[in-house]
């Protein structure tokens, strides 16, 4: 067993911290308040190579392996403050680029991957519907074969990046109920019959835009099918393995940064004759933050390693997603508590971190769904 990063991976992480602390910090509080998508920061991330980090080099990507991508994203989380733009980038990379790179044919990859990798095309994915969230395989959007193409009808909700996206990966029902009934489609924004609803206002991650997407007699050519008819559920499961890791990797960096701030505050802030860190109630909180960070980190690295080695890691990625998201929320809550009244104030930027963190226990499968998955693999 070898727990060392290579010198190259450490350099990638250092570069990510440097970039994120230089470009993804200033003005975060104001952007969060305004709830606007910062296009200039999207472009800066693209110039740094973040959007295309996993895209193979022939399509203008960085061609990194999954563990190296995790190292980079951890560094981004550590350096950045704008968790919203980071989430928009990871959602784009994991849920749109990922399935396209893995299951697209050469024509689809040639058409879309270079733009997605350099950030000039923004990607989104629509799985969730108003009446099917956790029960993703129960989605009701239909795709019916017609004159050599397909006609899609339905509605998607909570589609990250939808207000600004150019390309949607849409999951629709082409057959009967359940696993074999789903197919994945590539739907460009300008397709007739596709409309994007107004931006939905969120509690956190407010610089990452989200909205509903409506498909009303939305006609697509046969070439819009991604990975073959009836392979939607397989693509969904394969994509989820990696998506859980990519969207959670920045949280490791955020947790480390918040832990460092909390330690510094616990050393310096006095209440009575001693620093608050001398009170066991506070120091044990810090110890628990450290435990949550290190346990999450190991599970995440292990899941990425397993996925790279074996090509599949459903249990490992579900365990990592569950552990990181729950520890992340707990860490932010502890930081607010350690900072006392200051922690509740916007200027201290911890209340925003807590609001941002809460989303991680919901998206890419809620914590309950990760537990179901883990228990299900034990036959329960
Ligand atoms: C910030 C954000 C970004 C998102 N981005 C996207 C996106 O880009 N694309 C997309 O398609 N979706 C996206 N989603 C949607 C997300 O995947 C769903 O919100 C999530 O799957 C839960 O579905 P739901 O909201 O319908 O909740 P429900 O499924 O209605 O669940 C409600 C509650 O019941 C629990 N529950 C449901 N079923 C079970 C069960 N079988 N066992 C135990 N508990 C259960 C859930 O865990 C939850 O606590 C996003 C959501 C958020 C918050």
How does the SSE layout of this entry go?
Layout: H1 7-23, H2 28-34, H3 39-48, H4 66-79, H5 83-103, H6 106-118, E1 123-126, E2 142-146, E3 149-160, E4 167-173, E5 182-188, E6 194-196, E7 210-221, E8 225-226, H7 232-268, E9 270-271, E10 274-275, H8 280-310, H9 314-338, H10 350-358, H11 367-376
Parallel strand pairs: 1-4
Antiparallel strand pairs: 2-3, 3-7, 4-5, 5-8, 6-7, 9-10
Helix pairs in contact: 1-4, 4-7, 5-6, 5-7, 7-8, 7-9, 8-9, 9-10, 9-11
Characterization of the model:
This protein is of the alpha+beta class and 380 residues long. The protein has three domains: 115 residues, Butyryl-Coa Dehydrogenase, subunit A, domain 1 (Orthogonal Bundle), CATH 1.10.540.10; 106 residues, Butyryl-CoA Dehydrogenase, subunit A, domain 2; 144 residues, Butyryl-CoA Dehydrogenase, subunit A, domain 3 (Up-down Bundle). The protein has eleven helices and ten strands. α5 runs antiparallel to α6. It is globular, with a radius of gyration of 21 Å. 50% of the residues are buried. The site of flavin-adenine dinucleotide has 20 residues, from β1, β3 and α11.
Largest sheet: 4 strands, mixed
Distance between the termini: 31 Å
Ligands: flavin-adenine dinucleotide
| CATH fold category name of the largest domain | Butyryl-CoA Dehydrogenase, subunit A, domain 3
Quaternary structure of the protein = single chain
What is the mean pLDDT?
Answer: 97
